[in-house]
Amino acid sequence: MFRTILNRSFLVVRNSQQQQSKLLSLNVRYYSNRNEHVVKTNSNEGDEILKKYKQQQQQLKQQQQQNDPSIKVDESLLKYEPSEKNIMKIDELVDPAKQKWYLKLMGLYTKDTLFLNISHSIYDSIAIHTSNPALYKSVGLPLTVRSWFAMTLLHMWMVFVRLRKDGKVANKLSTDIYDRFWEDLEKRIVRGGIQHKFAAKYLKEFYTNYLGSVVAYDEGLFDDVIMADALWRNLLAMSEDASMSQIDFMVKYIRVQLNKLDNSPNVGTRGEITFDDVSTIQ
Fold first, then answer.
1. How many structural domains does the chain have?
2. Which of 52, 92, 163, 247 could form a disulfide with 170 if both were Cys (CB 3.0 to 4.6 A apart)?
3. Is the pLDDT of residue 29 over 70?
4. What is the pLDDT confidence band of residue 262, given thresholds at 50, 70 and 90?
């Protein structure tokens, strides 16, 4: 069923990338803006230029090590640290018999407080689940800030789909979960080694990716072929190394998790969600 995608999207992108990556002949001609003349190089000079170019690329790669969220890091990036803001128990918020009288006087038992705590509970479950390195290994994703962002966003989207069943509370909870996500992302950008001066640039890029991913996954909600294409473009970042078996596995994974969430009764009221472990998906 995925052959359509190969013919339509994969081959076009890959052929384009292969064409762009071909080296020019060593008998090159290049123009110098400073001297405004044409320099012809022979084969030996071409070798020197190529060698110098490779050295410059290596130096540039080293400089980007602390600036680029696509640079591979270790598993410590995935470690989740729950926010200290979630200080009230859901049971206490939904059951008047368990509420403390002095907190009632302070007006803390409100719907906003309930939604805030539910959003923390939901996001904690998402972030803990996506902290498993095996989840990334299953689809060949490196442990990078970009990979964590894409994987966590995918699981948030699945929860958003489930929350749509809960009517009016869905919008409020989705917004609160969205806020938890960006708070967490800012922390991981720092832990991922991205310098502060580059953070704003990448946050803007991540925001654009967020919008595009949510729309793409919505379009693939009822169509496996469209979902596979959305996963390749957004989760796997159009990687040439991505295999059809990995994409097929991820489509199955999403269907299993959506079904599990759909049968969870207390998502919007208590923030109770669980995901099946990646090792159980067949």
1. 2
2. 163
3. no
4. very high
**Cα separations (Å) of 68 from 81, 197, 199?**
23, 12, 10
147-150 contacts: CB < 8 A, separation 24 or more? 148/77, 148/78, 148/188, 149/69, 149/185, 149/206, 149/209, 150/209, 150/213, 150/234, 150/235, 150/237
- Cα atoms in the 13 Å half-sphere on the side-chain side of 73: 24
Give residue 59's domain range: 25-64
Strands 37-40 and 29-32: antiparallel
Question: Are residues 31 and 124 located together in one domain of the fold?
Answer: no
Condensed to tens digits (0 to 9), the pLDDT of residues 200-242 reads 888 889 999 999 999 999 999 999 999 999 999 999 999 989 9
The pLDDT of residue 61: 55
State the Cα–Cα distance between residues 129 and 90, nearest whole angstrom.
20
29 strand-pairing partners: 40
Same domain? For 98 and 55 the reply is: no
In a shared domain, residues 91 and 231? yes
